[in-house]
Amino acid sequence: MPNYSVRITGDHLIYSAAHFILLPGGICESLHGHNYRVAVELSSPLNEIDCVIDFLALLQVMKSIIAALDHAVLLPTRHPAIQVLAGENEVEVRFGPRRWVFPQTECRLLPVVSTTVELMANYLARRLLETLAAQGFARPPRVKIELEESPGYWATCEITSD
């Protein structure tokens, strides 16, 4: 039986965001930004019109997901050593003696342990699956997100259904 996949990427799947991560030894990177590039691949049996999924529908879903991250500070809410306190107008972040305060509207509080490119690829894959389900699409047996953090530096997350 043949396996089918579709893949989308390109200049319309790029977002810019700031983040920091904790390095080995409890070292905290400085806040910095990247222009992230996304590639999405879905594998699935063909649907009733002999497609995996309509390219334009997949593109619109991914554009909406990354638009929510574009030009924002990405903050992990599940790291045990990083405190993220959201107020009405501000977000305060603490790690040891370090403290940052950001406008609330410019932050995205993400349910991740870290904003590494690997975990961000996982976050995007899970958001894609959630959004497809909410829009009535069948769950694809395989979704793969490739995320480029800087030119030539990619991470991949693949989620398969059991």
* Proportion of residues in helical segments: 10-25%
Strand order of the largest sheet: 9-5-1-4-10-11
Separation of termini?
Answer: 19 Å
Mean pLDDT: 96
CATH-defined architecture: 2-Layer Sandwich
Tell the overall outline.
Answer: elongated
Order of helices and strands: EEEEHEEEEEHEE
Q: Give the low-confidence spans.
A: none
Number of domain units: 1
CATH top level assignment: Alpha Beta
Q: Which structural category fits the helices and strands?
A: alpha+beta
Radius of gyration: 17 Å
Could you tell me the strand content as a percent range?
over 45%
CATH superfamily: 6-pyruvoyl tetrahydropterin synthase/QueD
Q: Please, could you describe this protein's structure?
A:
By secondary structure, the chain is α+β, with helices and mostly antiparallel strands. It is 19% helix and 45% strand. A hairpin with a 3-residue loop joins strand 6 and strand 7 (90-95). The longest helix is centred in the C-terminal third of the chain and has 18 residues, at 117-134. The radius of gyration is 17 Å and the shape is elongated. It starts with a strand and ends with a strand. The mean pLDDT is 96.
